Amino acid sequence: MQGKITKGIAGFYYVHTEGNCVYECKAKGVFRLDGKKPLVGDNVELDVLDQEKLLGNIREILPRKSQLIRPEVANVDQALVIFSIVKPRPNFNLLDRFLIMMQQQEIPCIVCFNKSDIDEEEAGRGYLDIYGACGYRTLMVSARQNLGIEQLKELLSGKTTTVAGPSGVGKSSLINCLQSGVVMETGSISEKIQRGKHTTRHSELIAVEKNTYILDTPGFSSLGLFGLEKEELGAYYPEFAFYEQDCRFRGCSHISEPACGVKKAVEAGRISRLRYENYCLLYEELKNKKKDYQHAGR
Ligand code: GDP
Ligand code: ZN
Asked: Rg of the chain's alpha carbons, rounded to an integer?
């Protein structure tokens, strides 16, 4: 039988199968076989040990399409990042960091703004324009009033999506909306594990419809920039590419050089000032990180 690992705790793996059952599995022999550790998101071949108690053993990990590092999960097709329009207002610097992190891992992003029901100043539309102009899929929803949920479901359909956002933006509420109507039969989760469950927050895949999964990840309040040189940062602002051709200097950082095409586009309102200002902040941060590194004598 084939299935997908939705959760892994202390050597146990939970495998969701076509019949909408979740088997509690060990992975005896798999590691020895091909040296791979099973990951959440892996498609696997399993042997059913006890159909009554829904117990099984993972026999083989099927080839991976992709593997994310943060969070560590296999076969993710896309990321959905959620911010709220108000309460709290979006931290755009954090949003840009998230987009960079996903782009580094070559995962396309959907940018979703929640709480449209209390967006009295109608700020949401402007946010969609800013990120839409950078080439991201964007949408505005309200978990509370069930607005935009059908559109969101369409974007997720048939795919595995990692869902992230700072806490308080309504991520759990949205996931609840998406999950409505899904009933799963779950294997007898051993009591020990059940009790230990709340000590650590694990990423877990949730089946929302056939072949459609979402990965609920813990809320974040900060994100570091890893494996990135300041010279590379511009490449993570896709909307710069067109205007960079007008920069006088090759390798222009778009910070202090004269005759900079990107800065001109910002002045002309063709590139969002908000995005450009975040670029400058992140550039500065990467520059200083480099300095710290050199001071450390390495
Ligand atoms: P999480 O921390 O991102 O998982 O956010 P929650 O789902 O726990 O929601 C945080 C708060 O925002 C709760 O008080 C929710 O009732 C509220 N909330 C969530 N979605 C909406 C929404 O669409 N509109 C409004 N007005 N409030 C919402
Ligand atoms: Zn420039």
From this structure: 22
The residue whose C-alpha atom lies closest to atom 20 belonging to ligand 1 is 170
Query: pLDDT for 241-284, tens place per residue?
Result: 999 999 999 999 999 999 999 999 999 999 999 999 999 999 99
How far does the centroid of ligand 1 lie from the alpha carbon of residue 168, in Å? Answer: 6
CATH of the structural domain 2-61, one choice from 2.60.40.10, 2.40.50.140, 3.30.70.260, 3.40.710.10? 2.40.50.140
Q: Which ligand number lies closest to the CA of residue 148?
A: 1
The ligand placed nearest to the CA atom of residue 86 is: 1
pLDDT digits (tens, 9 = 90+) for 101-152: 999 999 999 999 999 999 999 999 999 999 999 999 999 999 999 999 999 9
pTM: 0.89
CATH of the domain spanning 67-216: 3.40.50.300
Rounded-to-integer distance, Cα 267 and Cα 279, Å: 15
290-294 contacts, C-beta under 8 A, 24 or more apart: 290/229, 290/230
Atom of ligand 1 nearest to the CA of 82: 3
Whether 39 contacts 8, CB under 8 Å = yes
Which CATH superfamily groups domain 230-297? Probable gtpase engc; domain 3 (1.10.40.50)
Tokens at 269, concatenated = 């309102």
How far apart are the C-alpha atoms of 207 and 212, rounded to whole Å? Answer: 6
| Cα(296) to centroid(ligand 1), Å | 44
